[in-house]
Amino acid sequence: MKQNIGTVNSMVRIAGGLTLLAWSIAKMAREKPSGAQMFFSVMGAQKVAEGITRYCPMTDMLELDK
């Protein structure tokens, strides 16, 4: 799997993903988890993973270069 996003893009994805993940987990800790909160936590985790690996499947599928 080749890297297809740049360094700055990966840092933004990690920061945004961690923010989304922390927000959704904090919300789930206060009240019963809903489907939307689970969705946001999965999306946050996905963005963190994309930032760490510097690979985005959507960018690869759309054949966009960095």
Structure, described:
With 66 residues, the protein is mainly alpha-helical. Helix content is 73%, strand content 0%. It has 3 helices and no strands. It has helices spanning 7-30, 35-53, 57-61. α1 packs antiparallel against α2 (35-53). The chain is elongated, with a radius of gyration of 13 Å. The two termini are 15 Å apart. The model has no long low-confidence stretch (mean pLDDT 92).
What are the salient characteristics of this protein?
mainly alpha, single chain, 3 helices, 66 residues
Quick recap:
The protein has 66 residues and is mainly α.
- Mean pLDDT comes to 92
Radius of gyration: 13 Å
- What is the number of helices? 3
General form: elongated
What is the straight-line distance between the termini?
Answer: 15 Å
* Low-confidence residue ranges: none
Query: What structural class do you assign from the helix and strand content?
Result: mainly alpha
Beta-strand percentage? under 5%
Please summarize the sheet with the most strands.
Answer: none
* Helix-residue proportion: over 70%
Q: Sketch the topology as an H/E string, one letter per element.
A: HHH
Q: Using DSSP, what is the number of strands?
A: 0
